[in-house]
Amino acid sequence: MFAVEVRDHMMIAHSLPSPVFGPAQGMHGATFVVDAAFFTEDLDENGLVVDIGLATEALSAALAPLKYANLDEIPDFNGKITTTEFLCHHIWHQLREAVLNTGLGGGGRVRRIKVSLEESYIARGWYEADI
Predict the structure, then answer these.
(1) How far is Cα 58 from Cα 96, in angstroms, rounded to an integer?
(2) Residue 19 burial by CB count (10 A; 0-12/13-18/19+): exposed, middle or buried?
(3) CA 17 distance to own-chain centroid
(4) Where are the beta strands (DSSP E) in 1-122?
(5) Which strands sit side by side in the sheet containing 2-14, from one edge to the other?
(6) Which candidate, 89, 102, 88, 90, places its Cα nearest to that of 58?
(7) Residue 66: which of 91, 35, 38, 97 has the closest Cα?
(8) Least crowded by CB within 10 Å, which of 7, 16, 77, 126?
């Protein structure tokens, strides 16, 4: 498979209200480096997986409602624990919609998306699936 990966970042605030998270149960901030990879089995007539500009715009749009937000106050996240893994899945869904409903999908050529969030230089999580 061929892939193109683009990068952005976001700063958020949230709490993780379960005893398993220890001190992270309380309100805290996080800065994530966010990578999104788009996979195809073949290149288009221009030798591209996807247009990097469109991929960058799609990732930016997916992150816009989350940047500088308190995730505990986002209605769609009510009752959810906004772990790194949860956020990867959420962003993946936003990018899936962009692939299916914009020119980013290359006429159905994009087959898979991987979203990874790096929370520090020693830890990252991701969600990857076929569209």
Answers:
(1) 10
(2) exposed
(3) 22
(4) 2-14, 28-40, 110-120
(5) 2-14, 28-40, 110-120, 123-130
(6) 102
(7) 91
(8) 7
Amino acid in the structure at residue 131: I
Question: Which pLDDT tens digit goes with each residue over 86-123?
Answer: 999 999 999 999 999 988 877 789 999 999 999 999 99
Retrieve residue 89's tokens.
């899945």
* 117 close to 87: Cβ distance less than 8 angstroms: yes
Q: Which residues contact 64 (CB under 8 A, 6 or more apart)?
A: none
Map tokens 């106050």 to a residue. Answer: 73
Judge contact between 130 and 39, C-beta under 8 A.
no
Whole-number Cα distances in Å, 119 to 12, 28, 44, 62, 125: 11, 13, 34, 18, 8
Return the DSSP state at 20. Answer: G
pTM: predicted TM-score of the whole model, two decimal places:
0.95
Confirm if 67 and 10 have CB atoms less than 8 A apart: yes
Distance between CA atoms of 69 and 79, rounded to whole angstroms?
A: 16
pLDDT along the chain (131 residues), means of 10: 97 97 95 98 93 96 98 96 98 97 85 96 96 94
